Amino acid sequence: MSKVQSVIIETSPHRPVNFNEKAVSKVLEESYLIADVKEDGVRLNLCVEPSESVHRVHWLSREGKEFPAFNQQLPLALDPRWPEFFETDEALFPEGFMLDAELRIDDLPCKDIAGTLRRHQAIDLSRLKVIVFGILPMSVVRSGQDYDVTHSVMKYHVEYQVKLLQERFPEIAWSVVESLDCFSMEEVDTLYESVRERKLEGLVLKDPNGIYKRSKQSGMWKMTPDDNEDGKVVGLVWGTPGLANEGKVIGFEVLLESGHVVNACKISKALMEEFTYTVRTATVKAYGCGPGDAFNPYLGHTVRVTFMERYPDGSLRHPSFDSFRGISEPTIKE
């Protein structure tokens, strides 16, 4: 994993809460819902700020940390086209703005995108896809306050700014999130099923009269399948003595956000070798070659666990390790 990254800007983006049918139905009784299609990417807070005669550009995670892959590359930073973007093109928020978006690289799944962003290697800009669903001025971002603009209005701000970005910076694939207005739970359910059939992650439902809030608050609801959960590594799972994987790390003990502890295994042989080598190397470094318990260098790392079924008591059937969730810092979910 990469070294700990410092916070560049505390962006504190509005994060959706889990789906709540009662809350969602109440919104539908009064108006309608904006249903954004949830892409299988990494949350991006792209901040653009003027500084004297140049513009600073930060590609940040939702924790406000620079993605390691962009530390040296700094895409679009100090680009001479920014003055034209704001003055000639008449873009919104010339004092600076933040795009709240999903970042994709080619058509890679989320865990591979996260792995690519963790590496300190430049990425060809033609591989980047920025799917935008929010925009707000940097003055609001830095204030930490809610942004008093409704979701129904913000989507037009997003469409306007994205169109200008497409024209001025065509080397990156900018787009507006796919979105539909739903007027009943039946429409929501139908859209959700069609999105899942397309192998996409799900929906983010928004109250059109709600405003952009900071951090995890109501007004936005995440509608995704209950087949994965995040947690933190609290221990190692070793292969059974006498069997083929004896002496190898075959998974992790994970404390899930729901409070349950599971053994998340079912990893590839390549990951077994990688995890085992890392643990052995860390153990020798920590304790030398003498006897003693293994040192766990993965302790506290955030991970995603997939499973087949959640039992009524909250425990999981066939939990499996899926991926690490940290990018700029292994102990923080991004």
Automatic annotation (TrEMBL):
Which Pfam family is an annotated match for this chain, by its short name?
A: DNA_ligase_C
SUPFAM superfamilies documented for this protein: DNA ligase/mRNA capping enzyme, catalytic domain (SSF56091), Nucleic acid-binding proteins (SSF50249)
This entry's Gene Ontology molecular function terms read:
ATP binding; DNA ligase (ATP) activity; double-stranded DNA binding
Indicate the secretion signal residues: none
Q: Which InterPro entries match?
A: DNA_ligase_ATP-dep_cent, DNA_ligase_ATP-dep_T7_C, DNA_ligase_T7, NA-bd_OB-fold, NAD_dep_DNA_ligaseB
Residue stretches making up the DNA ligase ATP-dependent bacteriophage T7-type C-terminal domain: 225-325
- Locate the ATP-dependent DNA ligase family profile domain: which residues? 23-223
For activity, the cofactor(s) needed are:
a divalent metal cation
**Which BP terms from GO are recorded?**
DNA recombination; DNA repair; DNA replication
This protein's record includes keyword Oxidoreductase: no
Indicate whether DNA repair appears among the record's keywords: yes
Instruction: State the UniProt keywords alphabetically.
Output: DNA damage, DNA repair, DNA replication, Ligase
What is the reaction catalyzed?
Answer: ATP + (deoxyribonucleotide)n-3'-hydroxyl + 5'-phospho-(deoxyribonucleotide)m = (deoxyribonucleotide)n+m + AMP + diphosphate
Q: Please report the name of this protein according to its UniProt entry.
A: DNA ligase
Which organism is the protein's source?
Answer: Pseudomonas fildesensis
